[in-house]
Amino acid sequence: MKPEEKVLAANQRFYQALEELDLDTMDSVWLHEDWVACVHPGWELLTGWEEIREAWQRIFANTKRMKVAVANLTVRVEGHAAWVNCIEQVTSSFEKGFSTAWVQATNIYLERNGDWRLVHHHASPIPHAEEETVQ
Fold first, then answer.
1. What is the tally of structural domains in the chain?
2. CATH number of the domain that residue 128 is part of
3. Which of 31, 39, 94, 104 could form a Cys-Cys staple with 117, CB 3.0–4.6 A?
């Protein structure tokens, strides 16, 4: 399997964990270091696996269901580092309704012992994209 294919497989596991609200799978996707980082849309920078994990745990606990469609994927591998750029269409269901958002995301991976682990996820709302909230 080519490095790009391995990175895309790791990226797919990340979105699978997100869609399934699966903290165990999310644990297996990320590199567990104090310097990894994550920016959710509208959030400040989270640093370190423990802080990031707690955020995923809160998101999953407050979300009944999530559907993520990923488009416009590009992948680049340079040695033991890789990044994926994509557009996410995220539809989340909550106790009092649901929302859909379009997000530009960058996911950065490092190769460790043959596995590609997420070290940085940055997601920003796309300007002028339709957002819908239904109560």
1. 1
2. 3.10.450.50
3. 31
